[in-house]
Amino acid sequence: MRKQNNASGEEAPKGRFHSELFDWGEALLISLAAVILVFVFGVRIIGVEGNSMMPTLQDGNQLLVSNLFYTPEKGDIAILTKDSFMTSPIVKRVIATEGDTVDIDFSTGAVSVNGEVLEESYIAEPTTTQYDITFPQTVPEGCIFVMGDNRNHSTDSRYGQLGMVDTRYVIGKVLMRIFPFREIGTVS
Fold it and tell me: Does the reported pTM lie above 0.90?
């Protein structure tokens, strides 16, 4: 068997190509595993369906969401799921957390938490639509009270089928809008 020589007459390393190919493959697999771990345990991309969060979010927006070390807080825009209400994830704003008392004056549209009227510059219009929940309501332990920013066109915690949401159903907090590209950035 003859040894292969390169142009300078030196013997070409036999396994060099295979070694580089193996190194590239190994780097690709490690990178892929890291991306999968980040998306499974850290961040997800979830799309907005419907208009309940207008004007803050629009139907079709794509959101970057994180659940890493997340505990819902008042004012957060959260993604949650509740199969008895809807099978796909829903986007709502956290209005109150466990122990808070929520009251809504449907004649003025004012939402109060623990007796303080919320300053809500993000809503489409004052809250005048009442569903089947009576107020005031105290949020039970381990739950949150959520509402859409498009208050009169949002099915949320005012509606008994969704009601107070157990925090175990919270997928995560919206970090930023990533689509459409012209609107990339944080949302609040």
Answer: no
